[in-house]
Design the sequence.
């Protein structure tokens, strides 16, 4: 895999001629490829392009999306400690060395997905001022290495009234009122599941600064916002996090609601979603057999059970092939070959999860003031010539 | 609650004058109220009427739905033993007395829901021969008492290759090919969660024969078919159940597939669903403020987060009030008062679960050959006069 990626890189001249080639301006920061779609430079926000997503079920680190709310903090790794406190029998202050030595190393392949993934589809319905128009690339899958949060919590000893685990990063976010570090919480029940990691490596390499070094949380099946980066503090609590990024934003509002403390439904588990990676919406393809590819992801404890594709607006459906299975915390890529006669076509997709639930049809009806959770059935138009 | 039910009974003369009154033919068997909707007498299949469901979030036992595939078996309770075997360190044969004495008694309030609930809506799209036209009453909520399956399994000691827990009843079902006992399996991971019970009581009273006495399984969040009644055998396995009721039926087929071993998607977790309990579809109500009531249920580890009601076909929505919260394994009843001018109205409902997923719109597109998992947004018509 690594060799393949290096070969691929040699075909992207911009990465090797920074400042010297006409491609140089397309090189993004933070070790990312030139073809990321950058929504904001500071804080850095960039999504993976369709081609990067389509390369395979594991997303290359240099193509992986970044959703930041504050600048990447400068952290002295030698002095860094993870502080565990709150409703625990004993507080802990752990160095990376201690984490590595005291706990079993674990690896989980997990899809992360921003709650704002596919927001562009909602903005097309009605503008959402102040929110970036994320396409389908605010998601990606990596193999994460670290220790189980559950084992660290077990050493601290949650008290009987413990019900939530707060996760506090080092990044200070000016967008919050008041300005504050990025943080959130997950239910203790989830925190004690073995898939939730405190991770120091991503795709077999040390975590890069932009992805949360020295240590981040990875909460498989939950919105990316709970996989707190630059983790510095774990607070075992009786109630959910009351900071801005859980109590005010990352909540689903009804169409007529206004963001405010406690308004709307807190997000957490990821809703079933899918999108098309190839062909691109609006692309012209050669008439005849056309390969359609995409991803589908079911959050929580669910998995993708089926993906259907329709060329007649949902009257009839054909089943796509589900590609490589990376385990219960990862998306599934899918593929189907359809026959397209010359002319305009609409390709409509619906995924099904293991509860036999499928995606809602009407994107417009999913519009909400912050533009979260657009999980409508994807629909692209292509012209066959 | 009990007193209220007795009073209600006295208003149903049929129950006290069997064979003597004009209402006698409406009395159903198995201790059930006269107003159950009986789909089949043998095996007994009957659903709760809208009025029974609307009485409150806990469904009275004498109104609770029954979905049987074979006749109620005659079991000698004194000789009965639960046999635990398969991939375990030691086999067990447990009497009810031993189960009661050796394990901690637990109580869980959980909604059961048949995978065929609301099938009538699919049959209205296209007939499904051989399947009963269940309305919205193939579901109900009860408080179940028993012991945790997890604790029984812990005593047996699952071997490392154990991954599924098979559950085998005493009821012989002629509809299966070959005729066989009703059975199924759940993942070991779920079987080890504390909410999965081996239950001997329902709503505070000993389990009735029709509900599985002396012992049944209750698997909260899973289709009713996994809550095996008249449990006699637990088989710890490496693979899912290969019997008829999991490997052939209780699977979601694509529209053009034919039932067969391993065809389609096995059902398990319950998909988000909802329905209207009052007013009834087609009812005439007094114009002015009208109370609309219903239920919503999110299976698996999810809960109902919001219920919306629309009077304009989904252009605008109002949020219903979620009523009594009976915990994470129970449905939510909901209520909203809408203003209806004289004339025809359509009331459209959508529930949202805690992953911010909502129900699919198009009932017709959910049609499948066995008529399972109709979780389309409910839609009723009423006339205000």
Sequence:
């Amino acid at each position: 895999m690594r060799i393949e990626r290096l070969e691929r890189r040699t075909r992207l001249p911009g990465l090797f001629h920074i400042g010297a080639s006409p491609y140089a301006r397309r090189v993004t920061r933070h070790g990312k490829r030139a073809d990321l779609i950058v929504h904001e430079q500071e804080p850095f926000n960039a999504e993976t392009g369709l081609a990067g997503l389509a390369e395979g079920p594991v997303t290359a680190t240099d193509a992986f999306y970044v959703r930041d709310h504050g600048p990447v903090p400068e952290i002295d790794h030698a002095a860094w400690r993870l502080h565990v406190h709150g409703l625990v029998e004993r507080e802990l202050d752990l160095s990376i060395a201690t984490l590595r030595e005291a706990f079993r190393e674990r690896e989980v392949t997990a899809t992360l997905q921003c709650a704002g993934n596919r927001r562009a589809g909602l903005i097309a319905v009605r503008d959402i001022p102040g929110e970036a128009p994320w396409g389908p690339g605010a998601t990606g899958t990596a193999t994460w290495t670290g220790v189980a949060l559950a084992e660290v919590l077990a050493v601290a000893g949650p008290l009987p009234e413990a019900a939530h685990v707060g996760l506090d990063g080092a990044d200070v976010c000016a967008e919050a009122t008041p300005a504050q570090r990025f943080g959130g919480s997950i239910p203790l029940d989830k925190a004690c599941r073995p898939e939730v990691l405190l991770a120091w490596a991503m795709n077999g390499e040390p975590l890069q600064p932009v992805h949360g070094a020295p240590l981040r949380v990875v909460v498989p099946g939950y919105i990316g916002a709970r996989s707190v980066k630059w983790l510095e503090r774990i607070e075992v609590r009786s109630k959910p996090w009351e900071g801005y990024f859980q109590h005010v934003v990352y909540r689903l509002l009804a169409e007529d609601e206004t963001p405010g403390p406690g308004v709307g439904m807190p997000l957490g588990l990821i809703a079933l979603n899918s999108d098309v990676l190839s062909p691109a919406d609006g692309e012209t393809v050669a008439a005849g057999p056309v390969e359609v590819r995409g991803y589908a992801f079911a959050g929580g404890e669910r998995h993708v059970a089926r993906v259907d594709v329709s060329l007649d607006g949902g009257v009839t459906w054909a089943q796509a092939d589900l590609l490589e299975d990376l385990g219960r915390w990862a998306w599934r890529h899918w593929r189907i070959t359809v026959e397209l006669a010359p002319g305009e076509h609409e390709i409509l997709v619906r995924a099904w999860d293991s509860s036999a639930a499928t995606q809602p049809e009407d994107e417009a009806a999913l519009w909400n003031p912050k533009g979260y959770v657009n999980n409508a059935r994807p629909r692209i138009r292509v012209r066959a010539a």
The mean pLDDT of chain B is 93.
